């Protein structure tokens, strides 16, 4: 049962979390803006870049209509956008921004600083590539940030964008880690869908603004933040970050379960569909491609789907658990909408790492780069490849 | 106004043991700034000598909050700090950027311009020592022409960017230049800057013995000569118009300032010696004053050019004067 079906059912069966939602038709970007408001973000910075711009426009519009009690500052670059968030978060505010493509790449330096100053910032990225110039769906921008120390979620629907932002503040503030919520350009950002918008009280109860530490700027108690760290101590910061990163997969599942108690929709680090001993092929996907794959595999009894929702840190335990349910000769095919200038895309790289102790047959396809439509036929073309043949390439380009 | 030295530190806000070189303008400036600002101040510090002087993590030279930030991001980080404090009802807390000339003239200019044009309620102080000193004396857009640096081993061909005119174009409520050799003037400007609301900017001359290559003992003397020769004029602007704060009585040639610093020493040699300047602060100060060698024709041209730039800058300032104090 899909999340939407589950909530519809609850709506009919009487009081429960579902009754505390209003059904709206929203674009992914509008869902993101609304989520920031529902989370009672107090400080937002903005710089326009297609296709993110309608998120910050909507936030500014809500503030102007006095529906949203936040300060939004229109900065002069994405570098400044993230640097200002860093400053405001250090002072203790709950902050938000959204960016895309070149903007995220331009902010790269600040992303490192935010993650390693352990600031619980949540930012949306509407994924698009860099060069050749292109504004359509692609994960290259956010994948390029995977080593900055941010947690990354990739969303499948507008509903998931809204829900993931709410969960992200909880995860960010309990771990002192920044979270990037990624949605596909246009396929999600500018596509209208049914979205169940929770009532404010539900969000307030689920994620009150609570920092794990009190270490923040307090003018009455002067301290220094972010000073030089010498070689004798540097790795202790990395280690503390690593220890927290190692807990994020479990925490994502725990927060997802708790979210279900409040909102009636369940989320985890991954979602496994039709994966079992009978499965001959597993497609591994992220973002909106997952929805298309869901439809196609519904007619393929021997095909499973593994959706990666939490990409960074890569949910190794959940992936292994799902793939261990299949027979040894089951083929695993990663669908990568990102070009990493390496042989394989990011998803296949992570799968290889995760499954390196097995002799699992792993394949990768490049599909949907730069916004090329991944239609049901594209998915069928991916499934039509004979992965059992010794002549089949490990990496395939699909159009 | 006479040169003065009677800025009395009434409430020391700086710990002993600052990690600066001897004779450093930065560490003196920190004492004066913090004495006026008081402990309820958040200092935002991009990469510059002061990020070292302020102390490694978790040490804090200042009795005040220090937020270290990225080179290009001082004014942007300060923007976030300011708005967050305001949302918490802490409007009275000062937010002060302490940046070098690289973080002001070059890599920090975009964020500085953004914050100034948004009229952020921030005081931005630039300690202008005229090069990237923290990394061992490389040219910045604030490096005056003729100066030898490790990246301009034959001397910088172009004059320093006129950042004060860029600042002026932003129509901010208060901006000024100041010098550690004119302390009462510095104190008054700090107080004015503290009182004003909106974006405020102070450019302070930053003596730097290893970078400018002179003895630490003459830092303040040189800062005074910089003003007396009009190389570093003192002026301010409160709500439009420019007021020159000090009119040098004697018409001292800029030579008096240049020839006492090793960074200009090659301009006073005959060219037979083409030693590149020693790089890094580790090399220590290079006293190189009182050159007696003959100046080659090319060098004389550069010296004339520097004098002309100084004269033109002064003329321009005189032209902008709204209140005359001659
Ligand atoms: S290099 Fe110059 S500015 Fe830097 S600490 Fe030394 S004297 Fe001060």
UniProtKB/TrEMBL annotation, chain A:
Keywords: Oxidoreductase
Domain Pyruvate flavodoxin/ferredoxin oxidoreductase pyrimidine binding: 35-253
The keyword Glycoprotein is annotated on this UniProt entry: no
Region span, Disordered: 1-21
Domain Pyruvate:ferredoxin oxidoreductase core: 281-379
This protein's record includes keyword Translocase: no
Compositional bias annotation for Basic and acidic residues: 1-11
One GO molecular-function entry: oxidoreductase activity
GO BP: response to oxidative stress
Source domain of life: Bacteria
A Pfam family: PFOR_II
This protein's name: Pyruvate ferredoxin oxidoreductase
Organism name: Natronogracilivirga saccharolytica
Automatic annotation (TrEMBL), chain B:
Region span, Disordered: 139-158, 270-305
Polar residues composition bias: residue spans: 139-153, 288-305
Keyword Hydrolase: no
Alphabetic keyword roster: Oxidoreductase
Name of the featured protein: Thiamine pyrophosphate enzyme TPP-binding domain-containing protein
Domain Thiamine pyrophosphate enzyme TPP-binding: 58-202
Protein's GO biological process: small molecule metabolic process
Keyword presence, Oxidoreductase: yes
A GO molecular-function annotation: oxidoreductase activity
